[in-house]
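[scheduler] slot 2 assigned
[scheduler] job type: sequence-to-structure, two independent chains
[scheduler] chain ordering preserved from manifest
[runner] begin chain α
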Amino acid sequence: MTRLLLLFILTSCAAEQSVKPGINDSFLAQRSVATWQERFEVESREIWTDRERLVDAVDVFRGADVADIGAGTGFIARMFADRVGDLGQVYAVDLMPYFVSHIRDGAIANGYANLVAVQCTERSVELPANSVDIVFTCDTYHHFEYPSDSLASIWNALRPGGRLVVVDFIRIPGVSRPFVLGHVRAGEEVVTREIQEAGFEKIGEDRFLQENYILHFRKRF
């Protein structure tokens, strides 16, 4: 009994703690997809206006299996689905059930047989091992409450040599908007270090966006 109790205590202590409690509260409070579409799919957001160039940068190939983590309203996941074609598969993964339902219903209504909506958890992307060639996150990494756990699940989901593409806000005190400084917990250097420590090597970057960086990583063995 004493040994079991000690094991439980050690396991509990080893569990990763939230790096930013409450980071997803706004999504829990506002469950209207239409409201989020007004924020995400708008010309004032560079991710929306430069979406074609952004998807080009991910270098999705026909027949690829791709995961969009934090897919939100699903507009990028649908673009991936168009590019991978019938031989590929796109997993649109999100923590919020209403986004998952919206993406699933839209895929059915618009004939996207290669687009699957997936409900994730705060600690795992909930994808099978060795199931995808590319994992993409856009303005989502800073929403990972448990980045080590989430990255471990991404590493597990990627096939050997698979790629991780991370798009997130540039966070520089005195340069970035006050919203970014208050909302985003870490800058690019910290994000890069966390991802490298999780078993990835950095292989490139893109700098054509004004408010976001794009980092490319490959799964290490």
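[runner] end chain α
[runner] begin chain β
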Amino acid sequence: MLGGIRDKANSAGAELLEISCDSVPVQLAWVTANFEQHEVSNSPLVLSDFWPHGEVSRTYGVFNEERGMSIRSLFIIDTSRTIIHSEESTQRGVLPDIECAVALVASLE
């Protein structure tokens, strides 16, 4: 869960969003469980790419058609809506380096 670095991202002028192909009820259960387990108080906004299934992920070229899910990816999009950095995880179940991305955003200021 990205909640632990949200304040750092906000200080760097960035907003964190989590997007998954899970339905809203599944996401709610996941967020609730993570809040309870990790005592997270400041979670990023969690958005659903459930229906049309994976439409946003396909738009960004990170939808795995074979598995029916998104590839774990990170995008930095500037205020003019231009992607200035992107990264895909090379290992299943491992997030891209979010701390490095936050540092990159901070260096742009």
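[runner] end chain β
[qc] chain β: The chain has a mean pLDDT of 85.
[scheduler] slot 2 released
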